Amino acid sequence: MVDKKPTVYSTDDPTVVAAFLDAQRQLQGFAVMVTVAAQELGKNTGVMRAAGAADGGAGTTIGLAPDNPNDPPTGWVYSRGRKMLRPIRGRAGDAARQWLDDHQPPPGTAVHAILARFGLPLHDLLGDVGDMGCRFSAPTVGHVDGVVWALYQGRPGVWWDMTRTEPSQPWVRRRLSEFYAAEEAATAARGTTVPEPVAP
After folding, report:
1. Average model confidence (pLDDT) across the chain
2. Exposed, middle or buried by CB within 10 Å (0-12, 13-18, 19+), for 130?
3. Among candidate residues 181, 179, 155, 200, the one with its CA nearest the CA of residue 54
4. Which terminus of the chain, N or C, has fewer Cβ atoms within 10 Å?
5. What is the mean pLDDT of residues 27-40?
6. How is the chain classified by DSSP, letter by letter?
7. Environment class of residue 133 by beta-carbon count within 10 Å: exposed (0-12), middle (13-18) or buried (19+)?
8. What is the pTM of this model?
9. How far apart are CA 116 and CA 105, in angstroms?
10. Which of 128, 133, 120 lies closest to 7 in space, CA to CA?
């Protein structure tokens, strides 16, 4: 049985903090760039992305959110099954497919994969291992006052190797109350909810 209690780790290692902040800056810059590009394309309300939790990636841009499903941009069509705008099949959708290719997150934005290089497991295990009910997700990660925090909803691990369940140095196990205290202090100081979660 997988432990479903939240667990928290943190590090103030300057190399990890710098890598996290750099990835977060790149991810935020990408988000602004792709939002502007979608607005310039018109006839949509923004990009649709698939999460990259399995490999710690920054996700994949897979389509556009429709403004009016019956009036998509040239080269795009509304997919009822996926509830998004996708490139039209064939040559008519070539420009739309190229737009998607040109608006994928760069490798430097894969925050969870970058932190995994420093010993942080990519996943929470949220269900029984070995049965069809095994679920996993990426931890919430954020930065507060020179410390990177990782909040797991279940037991840290990687679904293909259950022997790797604890973060290695420089990560330190922390109490959940410490995480919430850091979050509250940052909220009071900045007026925002911190740690700012990074989507998988």
Report:
1. 85
2. exposed
3. 200
4. N
5. 94
6. ----S-EEEEE--HHHHHHHHHHHHHHHHHHHHHHHHHHHH-SEEEEEEE--TTTT---EEEEEEESSTTSPPTTEEEETTTTEEEEPSSGGGHHHHHHHHHTSPPGGG-HHHHHHTTT--SEEE-S-TTSTT--EEPPEEEEETTEEEEEESSEEEBTTBTT--S--TT-EEE-HHHHHHHHHHHHHHHSS-SSPP---
7. exposed
8. 0.81
9. 18
10. 120
State yes or no: pLDDT of 193 exceeds 50: no
Q: CA 133 to CA 126: how far, in whole Å?
A: 9
**Residue at 179: amino acid letter:** F
Cβ burial of 85 (10 Å; 0-12, 13-18, 19+) is buried
Query: Is 46's pLDDT higher than 70?
Result: yes
pLDDT digits (tens, 9 = 90+) for 96-127: 999 999 999 988 888 888 998 999 988 877 76
The reported pLDDT for the residue numbered 189 is 80
